[in-house]
Amino acid sequence: MAALVAASLYFIIPPGVKTHLGLDLQGGLEIVYTAKTATGAAPSSDQMDQTVSILDRRVNGLGVTESAIQKQGTDQISISLPGIKNTQQALNVIGKTAQLEFYYDDPQHRPVGPVATKDEALKQLKSQGVPATKIAQLAATGTSYGAPPNYSLVEAKPGVFGNTSSVWFVYKRPPAMVGSAISKATAGFNSTTGKPNVLIDFTTAGSKQFQDITRNLYHTGLLKGQPQTFAIVLDNVMSSDPQIDYTDSTLMNGISGGAEISGGNMTVQDSKDLALVLNIGALPVRLSVAEQRSVSATLGKDSLHQGLIAGLIGLGIVLIYMLAYYRFLGLVADLALIVYGILLWGLFNVIPVTLTLPGIAGMILTIGVAADANVVIFERIKEEVRHGKTVRSAVNSGYARGFKTILDANILTMLTAAVIFVFATAQPKGFALTLILGVLVSMLTAVLFTRAMLGVLAGFAFFSKPAFMGVRTSQIEAAAVSEGRTAASRKRRTTTSAAPAAEGDAAAATATAGAAPAPAQNRGATTGSRTSTSRKKKKKRR
Amino acid sequence: MNFFRRIYSFDYMGHKKWWFTISAIIIGAGLISMFVRGGGNPLKGLNYGLEFKEGTRIAVIFTKPAALGDVRAVVTAQGHPDAVIQQVTNSSGASSFQIQTSTLTPAQQTSLQQALDQRFSIDPQGGWNLSLVGATFGHQVVSSSIKAIVIALLLILAYVTFRFQWKFAVGAIAAEVHDLLVVVGIYSLTGREVTTATIAAVLTILGYSLYDTVIVFDRIRENQPKLNRVPYGDMVNVSIWETLTRSINTTMITLLPVVCLLLFGGATLKDFAFALLVGIMSGAYSSIFVASPITTILKEREPQYRKLKLAARPEKT
Predict the structure, then answer these.
(1) For position A82, which CATH number holds?
(2) ipTM of the assembly?
(3) Between A and B, how many residue pairs show a Cβ–Cβ distance under 8 A?
(4) Which residues of chain A have a CB within 8 Å of the CB of B157?
């Protein structure tokens, strides 16, 4: 037991450092994404696993240390990023599909554009005889699917190729090349304009594809006597539209080295973020934000302080209550409660359980459960003493019987909590976990600590006086008599008047209060000599 | 009359009808409130928090003094005329506001933040707290919780039947449902906001209330063979008297920290604490005044106990 407490203390000290604080207490960002495939269907479990692993790498790339990424149900992923400051950047990096595509810009591959609005682009595509279902798909997801031919709707933000406002295109799928051809992306600066850009290197196969594209463009340009362009599209947004100079004969065999993505008004941060997501690769699904919560660090700290203060005050009052009510046994209970607190906190740090606001509330509630274990056992012991047993045997049998009661009640509580933990989501889950651990530790404390304490104390002479537990000799007799009488007076017990047996119980119960200045003839004498405890009860029961 | 003495000798089972009436009044009032507020649909009779509505909620603290009208003007100029804006008074006296809008895109969020910052200068130390919720989230929490409640109740039914008897299980389940209805009803009556925190608390109440009930049942089970010649109701009374001190003490011990949470905790903790407060009181009540009487009614139908009850009746008058 001592070893357990010592171990717990080792994991607690220094406080605050070893406890994992949840987002609501530490500040940070929490996002829940809903995943859908490009066709809007539910993702497969393979796709979900892949997505989680890609997101994990992206989050690591952001430099967040204690992030947690979890699948939720079949199509949701929750990400918590404690302590993160720049939430906007995080959102940009994490949620991006990062589907990089290269398209030829000639009319055959780009049937529509540039036009000023999305609707206009769709209208023009429709006039070319594309079925309405494809148009609807494009309007909804930006990409049509099903039987070919299929299309992608692409937006070019201002500045991509000298345009001053956003324009729209429709490209015919499949693209000439996709992001899987990239081996490495590096953030840098354009040597002529000095603007931030991302340089991409290709894999061997990718390099060949890129060379084919650029060579084709060179020769087409030569034929037409007009420079040709191709589009680099990231998640349906054109990020650059480079031109192949047909007069530069060194490009006759195409470009093999790599490519550059410059975008419109890319900032240094943007280029770094883009390089990060390109290096990690595209998501197999599309993510939409289902829930997003950001908590500032100050707000978190305030909540934590308020929770801790409330918890400590609550614990303090409970300790005083137990001491006032059970006197010496109360001291045992108080010690047990403190041990309970230390063990629970230690366990939280070891597992580690992330402490959240619901968790704090759950912990405070378990104070009641833990204290109750002692209350039940003590009440039993007192009963046994009143029934004329010696203190030592009362401790033994009272403990055994009390523990049996607690066992059933605790198993049921844990059962309920376990069901909640398995089936509920979000906050209820955290609450349930705290409750399960709290009940387990409270049982452990009752078995290891309270039992041992009572055992040791029962060995001392001073402890074997019933008075020490607030049970008086006269009450023992009274209770014993009433107990004996119960059998005889069973049939006489009535609903309205206080039959002797009933009154005996009342007297016994009064004795339980301990603090009552019960006179020797306590039956009927309690009137007018109410204690403060009894008054408290009176108020409550009404 | 000494009240303290009376509660330890009171005939709890003999006054069943009173307890059922009290419960019926409280639950009835709650249900009526849910129907009235929900316009016929009781599920709509609760004041659901943001988690149940699609949208964006921003808690913002300004360093410059700001009037509600001015903030509204800025928000409206940003293209959100339907935003719900509330001034929040806090201890430090800073001007803080709660803005609730339809779902904002990241670009809209940034532009709103910049506009407000320019005008009132947002506190750089955590003055901007944004949450965004999709339509499905709250409903998922509710539906998963309802699933959890149903499964939990079935398991409780099975376990109590296994450890005690099905008649006890019926009493326990009735007490659970009673507590759920009381808490929900009180939330509807007071119009308090129902958040996911509330739901978490309600689920916990299930566990707690059951704990309390089992303690009383355990004593009944123990007394059953010892007091097998008195009417069942009287035996239950004795069991309640014997566990009453524990019931009162435990309820006090659990309520004290919860009241502390209600007084000193932050907004979220207060939310929990209120639901727990109502739930714990209802749970303590239902163990004695709902679970036990219902089990007694069921048990008294058994031939042996019916005989005992009839035998005791003439003396009662």
Answers:
(1) 3.30.70.3400
(2) 0.76
(3) 316
(4) none
